[in-house]
Amino acid sequence: LRNTYMVNIGTFPKNHESFREENEEAVIKYENYRRIINQLKANPDIETVGIASNHTSLSALGSLYEGRYRSVEDTTLIAESQIIGFVADEDYLKVFHHSKDNGKTLVSTKDYDWNDPSHILISRMIADRLFPGESAIGKRIEHMDNPGYQLRVIDVLDDIKHYNYLRPYGVVYHPERINETSLGGKIITVRSKENTPPAQFIEQFKKDMSSNLLIGNYYLAGLSSLSQMAEDTDYRAGKTNEVRMRTALLLFLLI
Q1: Which of 138, 201, 246, 247 could form a disulfide with 192 if both were Cys (CB 3.0 to 4.6 A apart)?
Q2: pLDDT per residue over 206-231, tens digit each?
């Protein structure tokens, strides 16, 4: 999560002096949203831009959305999975350095063909459970709550760790395309370039983008470091407290 950030975009309320009713029309609102994305891509300190479907697709926030899937070929093979949704038009996978082949290959959202809405990615843990001893690529799965709607696996990525630091988690990645009717709940994420120190990036970003992202009824509401949010989540989940307790116990035993 180092060098990754959540861009918080706000909208002016109707009683704000900058609010314009015409900017609330669906088509204009979508066009302005795309202009925000383009402004972010043009920022020289940003390496790539991604869009998560919702908060549950960002493990740093401590939320988790799970689902149960089964193999279409053998419906007795079932796996429980974290579900990550992302917008296929941008590069969510590259922002968070998702990989395959045990970390040897970083993947990009642009590596795949998303024209078929049934295309999905799964992680190694899910592949092993649903297709033991064979390749999962090209195989079909379905969500237990939506039997009959078949999804086709187009690649297998490495497992990731959720905010629960003790174990990796299996993932099913669901892509989507956005339009003027599906902007709700989307979260814009960015990865800064490696040679830009975080403090410098945050300061310069707010300085440069506060005016650049003032588009239609949108404005820059803030920039959140996802690595810092992950640390805060760990603390709330008890990781930091557990480490402190273990350290205190060790010191007690040494005294």
Answers
A1: 201
A2: 999 999 999 999 999 999 999 888 77
Task: Give the type of residue at 5.
Answer: Y
The per-residue pLDDT for range 149-182, each reduced to its tens digit, is 999 999 999 998 765 555 678 999 999 999 999 9
Judge if pTM exceeds 0.85. yes
Q: Which residues of 11-38 are buried (b: 16+ CB within 10 A; e: fewer)?
A: bbeeeeeeeeeebeeeeebbebbeebbe
Which residues touch 203 (CB under 8 Å, ≥6 apart)?
none
Q: Is 70 helix (H, G, I), strand (E, B) or coil?
A: strand
Alpha helices in the chain (DSSP H): 26-42, 92-95, 124-130, 198-212, 226-237, 239-254
Question: Is 245 strand, coil or helix?
Answer: helix
Residue type, 149: Y
